[in-house]
Amino acid sequence: MKWISLALTVAVLTLGAGGSVRAQDRPTTNPLQGNADAIRAGMGLFRARCADCHGVDARGIRSPDLTQVWASGRTDGGLFQTLRDGIVGTEMPSV
Fold first, then answer.
1. What is the pTM of this model?
2. How far apart are CA 78 and CA 29, in angstroms?
């Protein structure tokens, strides 16, 4: 479950930051890691905004399996950028 905790806290961080965060101000590690309140809030955001495509277990339905994000070498910072900017030409919206 560690992967979903990280993904969810990054989601909270991203949604809370909006578009006003400059590149040099973005965290390189997840400052909310291990924060139980942020994890709970992130789970709600994930279910509402991500689970339709990525699945409640984050293993993918019509979008990529998020459980493999860190296994493929992605970082919190990279995931933050993807969540914030979306992926052009796909269903992945920006926040």
1. 0.66
2. 10
